[in-house]
C-alpha cells in the first residue's frame, strides 16, 4: 500500500486572506504546496489529505484541490475549535486553533496506512520525500515506530533574520531523544548560534538536526493522540493560547517509552517565506531548480 501525504493547511485561510492571494512563487505561478505534492507523487505517495477550516472549503476545493484531483486521490478534513472529546467545551473567548497535533487527529477516519505530515507552505525538497516514502513503506503493518526528517541546521536558515527551530537530540542509533525549541537562531560572524531567555549566546553545529515538521506515522498514532489530548485539555482547556503541538505528543511518547522515532537525515535545503524579504529568494531558488531541469513548468497541466 502506498503511503499518504497529510498536509496541514488549516491556517491558510487567515494567512492568505481566504486563499485569494495564495502566493504563486514558481515560474508559472506555482505555490510551494504544488511542489510538495509533485515531489510526494514522484516519491511514491498514493493519496493526499488536506486538513483545513470549513469556512474556506469551497474556495480551497476550487483553487487547490481541483489541480490535483486528476493525478491522485484527494480527501479534505476539517479542524475546528469544537472538535473536542466528550465532556469538554470550548472557552467562549478562545479563537486560537488547538495546534498541529489536533490537526493531525482530524485525519483518523480517512487515513489507514503509514502517512507523512507536512506544513502546507514549506518547501522540503525532493530528496526528503524520497527518503520519507522509503521509510514509510517499511513501517506498513507496524505500530509505535515512527520517523521524522531531520534537516541539517545550515540548510534551514533565513538570510533575512533569525529563525526558531526544533533542535533534535538523538541516541547512538539515530533515534530521537528530545526536541527543544530554540526561538532565536542566526549566523553570527560566520557561526550559527542561538540566544537563550537570558540573552546568552551558544554555538550550534552546522549539521545539527532540526525538525521542520516533516513526520512519518502509522495509524496507531491517532489513538495515542486522542488519549493524550484528554490529559492536555484537563491541564490547558482554560488557557486561551495553549496548543497541542506534534513535538509535545512525540516527546510524551518517547519519554514514556511508548514509541520511538527514527531521525532521517536529508541533504535537502528547506525554505519558506518566514519574512516578507524571503520571497524574492524563494522565487529565485525555484527558478534555479526549474532551470536545472528538476521541475517542469507549469507543474500541473
Annotate the secondary structure layout.
Layout: E1 4-8, H1 12-15, H2 32-43, E2 47-52, H3 57-68, E3 74-78, H4 100-105, E4 115-119, E5 122-123, H5 126-138, E6 145-152, E7 163-170, E8 176-188, E9 191-195, E10 201-203, E11 209-217, H6 220-236, H7 246-255, E12 260-266, E13 271-272, H8 279-291
Parallel strand pairs: 1-2, 1-4, 2-3, 6-12
Antiparallel strand pairs: 4-11, 5-13, 6-11, 7-8, 7-11, 8-9, 9-10
Helix pairs in contact: 2-5
CATH fold-level name: Spore Coat Polysaccharide Biosynthesis Protein SpsA, Chain A
* The CATH H-level homologous superfamily: Spore Coat Polysaccharide Biosynthesis Protein SpsA, Chain A
**Structure class:** alpha/beta
What does the overall shape look like?
A: globular
Relative helix content: 25-40%
